[in-house]
Design brief:
Length: 585
């Protein structure tokens, strides 16, 4: 009988193992920066190209390595952090598994140069696919420089799953921010090609936050400081009025290691109960210092998950700390000054009524006449009819105009049937086709705001908007980049409902971040759909008769008038027989 079980080759086994550690370029950045921190570096420089897919360089001034260690560090499970199993329960370093460099070397081309202090000679190692190609002696400054090239060069299938440079850069910046936040005693610089993204000097935590997220954070930070036995909670939370529609600025660090915890996140959101609107998220940056013996970080290869010996205790301490900080600062629900009519931006009430001579109007007319054929016959009154009959007909017509009875629904009677429209979905379809036409014709119309709106973003969000600003302009937004991390909005697409530009941009960014894996597929389509949904009129808006008629005219000039781009039904039709059935008539 033929044997079917065989042992995998070492190279294949290494590539499989590497998949757990090296998921994308940002995974490599995380591991290399953690190694630099563990080497007591005080200055770290990061340089990337093509979203890190083709090149990543990390330069530090840490302790460096000997010639033997420079080779040995690429061997699987080689580490200076652990010596025995008990050490797993008192880990204070960032790395400890001895898997990172081995995994990186199995799927990338790696060049490492390192020199220890007081040594005249350093070492250089070149390795590809886990195989050492060259070792040599060099002379350099103290520290380590490691260059990673062509991630997944030997696994084309894995490389094809990497996203655009923009998406990969966003992930890299996110990892860089976490390391920089947790190590304020280290100076960091970050370059995308030759463009400087960050230059962070050694500072305290509040200054590091402002350097990363922007000057406006200086006024919104509330300090947290709570101690319970050997558990210490410290950091900052944001004022409720500065909460955002976007996630991504919520950070937990346990013994200086970034961790994800929906459980602890709930404890903070609970503290803000009643202070922020639903689906808005406060800024927080919380450090938890705890005895390493009370936690287990050996849960996942990325080391982002953690187990606490007493999770409920940590939950309650975090909750108490945030509650106390909010109370000390007398935080209460903020007043929405934008709601004051005296300060509201003036918008022109228009729904872009189509010109009578346009082709789209003719198209709308033909389509509309087909649906309302019966209704039209109601308006044909013979000149020989009596005055009384004519008055009765006019009265019937006046009662047969489309009306908004129950928000967001518009009702239109057509002889023995009724059409019921959802006004928000109507407007979404209209805007979608308008924006799509703008993209096709490379032109758009804006209505200017009374006052320009400035929106300050963090580096990640600013980078995302920068890559899409030309497409956003085609929608009809008069928008420009302003400074290093802000945008200025001078106008919005004509025909849009009154909107809060800041909320609009933040919610758009949030959607792009949540679905960034899919951005590459059809970026324009995603942008058009997203803004059509966000710029549509509110379900609560009271419409005038002319506005309702304009919406109906525009809807039936669309290529598709019965469904939204996402497939939601825009209107339904009910005839008299169906109504009778409801009453068992």
């Amino acid at each position: 009988m033929k044997n079917i079980i065989h042992k995998l080759s070492e190279s294949v086994a290494n590539q499989i193992a590497a998949g757990e550690v090296v998921q994308r370029p940002s995974s490599i950045i995380k591991e290399l920066l953690e190694n630099s921190i563990d080497a007591s570096s005080k200055n770290i420089k990061v340089i990337i190209e093509e979203g890190g897919k083709n090149k990543i360089m990390v330069i530090d001034d840490g302790s460096g390595m000997s010639k033997d260690d420079a080779v040995k560090c690429f061997e699987k499970h080689s580490t200076s952090k652990l010596k025995k199993s008990d050490d797993l329960f008192k880990i204070k370093t960032m790395g400890f598994r001895g898997e990172a460099l081995s995994s990186i070397a199995s799927v990338c081309q790696v060049e490492l140069s390192t020199q220890m202090e007081n040594n005249d000679i350093g070492s250089k190692v070149i390795i590809e696919g886990s195989k050492i190609k060259e070792t040599s002696e060099i002379s350099k400054n103290r520290g380590t420089t490691i260059i990673i090239k062509n991630i997944f060069y030997n696994i084309p299938a894995r490389r094809s799953f990497l996203k655009s440079d923009t998406v990969e850069l966003k992930h890299i910046i996110n990892e860089f921010q976490k390391i920089a936040i947790a190590n304020t005693d280290v100076s960091f610089s970050f370059y995308n090609r030759e463009m400087e993204i960050y230059n962070l000097k050694k500072s305290n935590l509040s200054n590091r936050i402002v350097s990363i997220f922007g000057k406006n954070y200086k006024e919104q930070l509330i300090k947290c400081d709570e101690k319970f036995d050997d558990i210490y909670i410290k950091g900052f939370i944001g004022k409720p009025k500065n909460s955002k529609k976007t996630r991504g600025e919520q950070f937990f660090f346990v013994n200086n290691r970034f961790v994800k915890s929906s459980y602890l996140n709930h404890s903070i959101i609970k503290s803000y109960g009643g202070l922020i609107e639903e689906k808005r998220f406060p800024f927080y940056l919380i450090f938890i210092e705890i005895n390493p013996k009370s936690i287990d970080i050996n849960v996942h290869p990325t080391k982002n998950e953690i187990k606490f010996e007493d999770e409920k205790l940590i939950y309650n301490i975090v909750h108490s700390s945030v509650n106390k900080s909010l109370a000390i600062h007398n935080v209460s629900p903020s007043i929405n000054f934008d709601a004051d009519v005296n300060f509201k931006s003036i918008r022109i009430k228009e729904y872009n009524v189509i010109d009578k001579d346009s082709k789209s109007k003719n198209f709308a007319k033909n389509k509309w006449e087909g649906i309302f054929e019966e209704a039209k016959s109601e308006n044909m009154i013979s000149n020989q009819e009596s005055i009384f009959k004519e008055k009765e007909e006019k009265k019937e017509q006046s009662n047969n105009v489309p009306i908004q009875l129950v928000k967001p629904y518009i009702f239109k009677q057509l002889n023995n049937k009724v059409l019921i429209f959802n006004q928000s979905l109507m407007h979404e379809r209209i805007l979608y086709e308008k924006y799509k036409s703008n993209f096709k014709n490379k032109k758009s119309n804006s209505q200017q705001s009374l006052f320009p709106k400035y929106v300050e973003l963090n580096k990640t969000d600013f980078q995302l908007i920068s890559e899409m600003i030309d497409e956003i302009k085609l929608l009809g937004f008069d928008i420009d980049l302003f400074g290093d991390n802000s945008i200025i909005i001078n106008g919005i697409p004509s025909g849009s409902e009154e909107i809060n530009e800041k909320d609009l941009i933040e919610s758009f960014i949030e959607e792009m971040k949540l679905n960034n894996e899919k951005i590459d597929g059809n970026k324009n389509e995603k942008i058009i759909r997203s803004f059509a949904k966000r710029c549509r009129i509110s379900e609560e808006k009271k419409l005038e008769e002319g506005e309702i008629k304009s919406l109906i005219d525009q809807l039936f000039s669309c290529e598709i008038s019965n469904y939204t781009p996402d497939g939601e039904k825009i209107f339904i039709q009910i005839n008299k027989e169906q109504i009778n059935n409801l009453f068992n008539v």
